[in-house]
């Protein structure tokens, strides 16, 4: 029951309908699953960040594809936030996240909102580097905003 309450509380981009399936996973595996999703997000963020900094050539198709990749995997995060994962040694999710699920969820929604803005702008005619830069930076800042409060290190 507790699991269900926590998952429902997360909402937004992290929402999941896979509650029943979640109960099939072991806590250790859920943390690996969660960290793997973050690694996928990180790889996309690396390409987007390099684009924003001008380290690689701006390609509107690549920006859009990387943003869509993020959206496709981020939606799986919700089913990994199961309270039993709090006891997993390798998890870097701070107790603060569990104590303040509204705050944590708010950071998740801010990330989801920034990502949706990037996806929307990348679908507009004439999408260029000038439009991409600030939208990418907003997404990357939303990652850091959550880590500052809710991730160890
Ligand atoms: C709502 C909060 C939140 C947002 C938004 C968020 N993260 Fe994280 N991130 C976490 C937490 C919590 C962990 C620790 C997970 C664990 O170890 O259980 C984490 C872990 C990570 C890790 C380490 C994974 C590993 O192998 O241990 C990377 C890399 C990462 N995040 C990248 C990103 C990137 C890139 C973004 C934005 C595109 C992002 N995160 C957005 C909360 C967030």
From TrEMBL:
Domain of life: Bacteria
InterPro entries: Cyt_c/b562 (IPR010980), Cyt_c_II (IPR002321), Cyt_c_prime (IPR012127)
Keywords: Electron transport, Heme, Iron, Metal-binding, Signal, Transport
Signal peptide: 1-20
Pfam family, one: Cytochrom_C_2
SUPFAM superfamilies in UniProt: Cytochromes (SSF47175)
Name this polypeptide is given: C-type cytochrome
Lineage, uppermost ranks: Bacteria, Pseudomonadati, Pseudomonadota, Gammaproteobacteria, Aeromonadales
